[in-house]
Amino acid sequence: MNPEPIDLLHMGNERTIASYVLDTDDGPALFDCGPATTVDALKQGLADRGLQLRDVRHLLLSHIHLDHAGATGVLVREHPQLQVHVSGIGAPHLIAPDRLERSARRLYGDSFDTLWGELAPVPEHNVHVVGERVLGLDCFPTPGHASHHVCYLDRDGTLYAGDAAGVRIQPGRFVMPPTPPPEFDLDAWQETLEELERRDPERLALIHWGVAEDVQRHLADLRLELYDWADTIRGGVELQEFVEYVKLELSDAGEDTGQYDLAMPLWQSYEGLKRWADRNARP
User: Fold this and answer.
1) pLDDT in tens, 114-172
2) How far apart are CA 215 and CA 190, in angstroms?
3) pTM of this structure
4) Strand stretches in 105-263, DSSP E
5) Each residue of 187-204: pLDDT tens digit?
6) Which long-range contacts (CB under 8 A, 24 or more apart) does 184-188 make?
7) What are phi and psi of 5, to 5 degrees?
């Protein structure tokens, strides 16, 4: 049976951030959990599936960006038996999130608290660094969006993709790269796409947003868009030109431009691409 996303209704908006419930070798788990501002919606989504937070034994994180993992500490504080699985790079930032919070506050300014809420530390004994197998799922590095990103492949063929497979607001078909600062890496993402294609999952469980089943077409479109965006930025376009360009792409594809911009703000994608281009232009 295909996974069904829990709509976390971030800032009251539908189909912006999702979480997933999955069965593992050690009971129910969540894949990504959203920010602290969406905990109530997460609990309601669990209740709709006959679960309470205390029934969830594990939290599998793709990476530690706040839209995916910001609520982790708040959830563990309420449910101390919850075990958290994350990459070795991400683990220290869950245990001591001060540096992560400072960086995010610089990016979001006064809107940080409204968007993300509390960023609470996770006790070290609740945090587990992932290996090649986690609770019966394959786990493997998928950098490009972030250097510490990982994906989980279930035995039923579902790839819990985080941001490695891009943004696609179901039932739409347009696949948009999320390229925020500071770690976007085009070459690393190309290798990730090759690895995803090699593993040949049957479906992609996307945090932004929903389950995609035309996997090979989806990944091919993401690759083309990544290179198109990279070439556009290297061509010297400024922020407003980039935003207008992407909105035209979305409009031509019949997509809701505002919905995509909520899921992955275009100004952030521009900043990540610009930082990458400037870094790679240095002698």
Assistant:
1) 999 999 999 999 999 999 999 999 999 999 999 999 999 999 999 999 999 999 999 99
2) 16
3) 0.95
4) 127-129, 133-134, 137-141, 150-153, 158-162, 203-206, 210-212
5) 999 999 999 999 999 999
6) 184/144, 184/145, 184/272, 184/273, 184/275, 184/276, 185/143, 185/144, 185/147, 185/276, 186/144, 186/226, 186/227, 186/230, 186/276, 188/143, 188/144, 188/147
7) -70, 145
